[in-house]
């Protein structure tokens, strides 16, 4: 993502991630389907209070389509197979364009 001009912050701890999100400095959240310590569903529920922050869930390709529908129902902006970087980047750009308008691009 950084090669595409985005500023990124990486955490491996859900508590740290949620605390950082509380700073309001982020435009988008990418989260794995099964982060350590907490389920992605719990993160999505926590994000409902931050409606303006889109969340893209990176999912294993072998998952049942119902899982993606359920995550979308909980508020995921998109559910994308984690090995499909081009599709992930398309969703990132689309999300930022939706949020900031046609002039939105890399940070």
Short overview:
With 107 residues, this protein is an alpha/beta fold. 38% of the residues lie in helices and 12% in strands. Strand 2 (55-59), helix 3 and strand 3 form a beta-alpha-beta unit.
Describe this structure in words.
With 107 residues, the protein is an alpha/beta fold. The protein has a domain at 30-84. The chain contains four helices and three strands, in the order αβαβαβα. It has helices at residues 14-21, 40-47, 65-73, 85-100, and strands spanning 29-32, 55-59, 78-81. Strands 1-2-3 form a three-stranded parallel beta sheet, sandwiched between helices. The termini are close together.
- Pattern of helices and strands: HEHEHEH
Distance between the termini: 11 Å
Q: Are there runs of 5+ residues with pLDDT below 50, and where?
A: none
Mean pLDDT: 79
Structural class: alpha/beta
How helical, in percent, are the residues?
A: 25-40%
The rounded Rg comes to 13 Å
Tell me the overall shape.
globular
> How many helical elements?
4
In spatial order, strands of the major sheet run 1-2-3
Main beta-sheet strand count, sense and barrel state: 3 strands, parallel
Number of strands: 3
Strand content: 5-15%
């Amino acid at each position: 993502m950084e090669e595409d001009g985005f500023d990124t912050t990486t955490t491996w701890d859900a508590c740290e991630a949620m605390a950082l999100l509380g700073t309001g400095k982020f435009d988008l959240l990418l989260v794995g389907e099964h982060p350590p310590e907490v389920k992605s569903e719990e993160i999505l529920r926590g994000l409902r209070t931050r409606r303006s922050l889109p969340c893209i869930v990176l999912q294993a390709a072998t998952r049942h389509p119902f899982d993606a529908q359920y995550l979308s129902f909980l508020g995921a902006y998109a559910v994308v197979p984690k090995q499909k970087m081009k599709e992930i980047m398309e969703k990132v750009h689309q999300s930022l364009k939706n949020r900031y308008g046609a002039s939105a691009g890399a940070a």
